[in-house]
Prior knowledge:
Blueprint: H1 3-24, H2 30-35, H3 42-53, H4 56-69, H5 74-98, H6 103-110, H7 114-146, H8 151-201, H9 206-209, H10 220-231, H11 243-259, H12 261-264, H13 273-291, H14 294-309, H15 319-326, E1 330-332, E2 355-359, E3 365-367, E4 378-380, H16 385-392, H17 397-435, H18 441-464, H19 470-483, H20 485-494, H21 500-522, H22 545-561, H23 568-578
Antiparallel strand pairs: 1-4, 2-3
Helix pairs in contact: 1-8, 1-17, 3-8, 3-13, 4-7, 4-14, 4-17, 4-19, 5-11, 5-13, 6-7, 6-20, 7-8, 7-17, 7-18, 7-19, 7-21, 8-17, 8-18, 10-14, 11-19, 11-20, 14-16, 16-17, 17-18, 19-21, 19-22, 20-21, 21-22
Amino acid sequence: MDTQALTYLFVGASFALYIGIAIWSRAGSTSEFYIAGGHVPPIANGMATAADWMSAASFISMAGIIAFSGYDASVYLMGWTGGYVLLALLLAPYLRKFGQFTVPDFIGERYYSRVARVVAVICLIIISFTYIAGQMRGVGVVFSRFLELPIAWGVVVGMGIVFFYAVLGGMKGITYTQVAQYCVLIFAYLVPAVFISFMFTGNPIPQLGLGSAGVDGVTILKRLDGALVDLGFTAFTDGTKSKIDLFAITLALMVGTAGLPHVIVRFFTVPKVSDARKSAGYALVFIALLYTTAPAVGAFARLNFIDSVHEKTYAAAPEWVKTWEDIGLIAWTDKNADGVIDYGPGAPFEGRPVFSEARGAHGERLLSNPATINANEIFVDRDIMVLANPEIAALPGWVIALVAAGGVAAALSTAAGLLLVISTAISHDLLKKTFRPQITEKTELMAARLSAVAAILVAGYLGVNPPGFVAQVVALAFGLAACSLFPAILMGIFFKGMNREGAVAGMIGGLFVTLSYIIYFKSPWFGAVNTADHWLFGISPEGFGVVGMAVNFAVAFGVSRFTAPTPGAVRALVDNIRMP
């Protein structure tokens, strides 16, 4: 059976599994739709949390950004795992003891305010849609390559699958689907990593292979450093980011992790408070399997890429170059007309590749972009590195098919969790708890499903038109969570004197500052130059959530000092939440 047939088989079988689980675990009540009835065992919840967490950014894009950024990308490894320590210690058990359905539920009740609830819903929707854009983009990338569909149609297919098991099963269906998706994605990530590590170093453990000597007796990292320096790049093990930006991004990712609504809601699904901590511990173990492997995958991928394309003629380039070129994720422009691919620092042309239908003298697809003056001739979308790695290393077809199924599982698992929190926020927090408290449970459940449909449509649009590559888009979502929801939740648990006026003002202030900074530097509307020379305090948009968080705390405490104190009943609620 050829690779394409195996890909259809693996991806199709995984889809059948997910849909079968959704039918088996169909939600019949709002409790099952929102929190799976609160009966999910800790180990299953840890696995589902890991799948919910390890999105397209983790599976598809993180190793790609490590491959091209080297040491600087360590912020993603530290930030995205460290956040679970904060969750386990500071938030998860207390929120589970609170015993409601959603993050806005906690904020609305703790701050005795409908306004606080609505502001939390707005923050949640902005965060979730920013995050989900990366997931749907990941689905499109996987489908466009392995199922030979345009990226837009790949997104549409992914929307259909998510629609089926998220709308039908709710949290109950999503939870058990995510357990299956975790098994698929972690197996798909580890198998090629083991293969490639063994090929490079003779050591089948990727984490150890990264520091092992290759067949030439030189360690992989030293060999990669040498190759990059010879080409004019910064050494892989050297960083270019400032210390303050490294610190800011890492902290923003950690705090943002602890404030992400689709992660927090998972801790409402376990039977008792102690299970919330256990779930966070299990989740960290399951996540670490992938995150400790990612540096090796990124390093092997970059080295493989250089060996495969640099100073090779286009005619002699591996088939995978032309395959990914056909879907617009690799491009070559022959600047010196010698027929040889030259790889070096700098962008090969303006922006992303704009292909024409014409072919060049060597058979390459011609580009409409004006060429830049540097020597680099090849563009590679960093989101493809994990997906292309098995092809670059010439691994068996079944491994390539397995990676395709894993990439789809990673993107769909997180997309489903995000869609659920959006639909829950709209149906439960806005409709039931704010504007239409008299509606029946049946009507609320129908509203949740209709909200999920609307959210899927918006997510599909963002997947076709994403504001950046997957990991970058996701990093922005973490900054937004760090500056808005996390401070409100933390102060709600540990500061009895924080009142509704302070919490609302803090969320609005933190979100406004961070969102304005991101839009200024990331959107095309202002023409701002997104370089360190122009950043405030030298902090990039990905790390500016830390400044927004500081603004949130400062505004909240300042406003609370000059407004009415917290009622006694709310102080008693806080004491009860924190009581062992």
